[in-house]
Specification:
136 residues, elongated
Length: 136
């Protein structure tokens, strides 16, 4: 069971009480900054040793109970996906392939890095980016 209640959240919204994070536990928290018009559910997690944050949805769209269920499901899904992935660091070989790809195709840097990261270890690049796919 989390530490937030629906009554607390409604009171904060009604009183326009702003905050960076109110934790519900297990990485789930609510953010309601001055620039926000409505509170946002966020989930923090670690990937490849780095702290990451994922927006889940707004309080109006996603209830407290639903946000808790999403994070349980999300955790299982992310872990299952990450178990199948390989984390690759940018090596000198990838850097060189990035430079070559960018020069040859006049590609944007992110596209060049993505292509080189797959090409260096001989992996197949799966992408929905039609422009990048055409350059491969």
């Amino acid at each position: 069971m989390g530490s937030l209640s629906d009554i607390q959240i409604r009171t904060w919204v009604k009183n326009s009480e702003r905050f960076d994070a109110r934790s519900d536990g297990d990485g789930l928290y609510l953010r309601f900054r001055r620039v926000d018009t409505i509170p946002v559910w966020r989930s923090s997690y670690r990937f490849a040793g780095k702290q990451r944050v994922m927006n889940i949805g707004t309080y109006g769209q996603v209830s407290l109970a639903a946000a808790r269920r999403i994070t349980d499901h999300e955790e299982r899904t992310v872990k299952a996906l990450l178990d199948r992935m390989t984390h690759l660091s940018l090596t000198p070989a990838i850097e060189e392939l990035t430079i070559q790809f960018r020069r040859q195709h006049r590609a944007k840097l992110p596209d060049a890095i993505i292509s080189a990261t797959a090409q260096a270890p001989g992996l197949e690049l799966l992408t929905l980016d039609k422009k990048l796919k055409a350059k491969l």
